[in-house]
Amino acid sequence: MATTTHASAMAAATRARARGTTPSTSAPPTSASSRARPLAAARRRRDGATAAPTPHTIDYSTRRRRGYTSTTTLRATTTTTTTTAASAYEAFPEKWDVLRLAAEQRRGVGHSEEDRAAMEAAIDALVAAAAKRESDPHPATSPKRLTARWRLVWTSEKETLFLLEKFTAEAYQVIDVIGRKLANEVVFKGNGSVFVVDSAMNIASESKCAFDFIGARYEFDNPFKWVLRLPPVGRGWFENVYVDETMRCARDSRGDTLVVVRDE
């Protein structure tokens, strides 16, 4: 079979030379997939690809058009997020040390004396570092800096820690400087119940706030909403030793410390 084909080719070449022409090598018939290859290559060049995908390589330029996100994009996003977090830590490590301890100590639930000492030392380091930075012109008790709904991330207060240990709950401190209102809330997850202690608040200095309890209530929401009101007890004060756009640290008249973050 190979000899016959070779002889036929030689004969064709001889006839071509006799006619004064050069024989051309005929290309095999092209299939639809063969004709599509140049178009696919052009699309890859347009999308920035340099080589055709192998059978085990995903053509991310095509998948991106279909609504997928490439591994390269995901890797870049993760790297950017990690880099941003690292940059934030490098910019103010004392702040992130406080937040790290708050997470490790489970908001203070079951904390030991050593845990408390570590947190107090971290807050002291944060306050000292903040004093060396350019200060905010607004005092720590100004409406701009203090008015917010703050979520508790660490406390030494036994009553709050008891509730956080026994129930699945979040604790908040809601402050309205202009309205002179302070509310401490514990929101119980699952049944929508809320325990609230309301206080009237006054600004005592650029960092200290005084308050008088005016009432407490337990709002049940399972299955019907009703309110159990409790008598107010006591008064006190708290001092904001550190406040920024996202976090606040305070120490109060009972010797307790709390760390809260702005709840958006």
From TrEMBL:
One GO CC term on file: plastid
Amino acid composition bias (Low complexity), ranges on this chain: 1-41
InterPro entries: PAP, PAP/fibrillin_dom
Keywords attached to this entry: Plastid
Keyword Cytoplasm: no
Highest taxon of source: Eukaryota
Region feature Disordered, mapped onto this chain: 1-67
Subcellular location: Plastid
Coiled coil residues, start to end: none
Plastid lipid-associated protein/fibrillin conserved domain residues: 102-260
PANTHER family cross-referenced by the UniProt entry: PLASTID-LIPID-ASSOCIATED PROTEIN 4, CHLOROPLASTIC-RELATED (PTHR31906)
Protein name: Predicted protein
Organism: Micromonas pusilla (strain CCMP1545) (Picoplanktonic green alga)
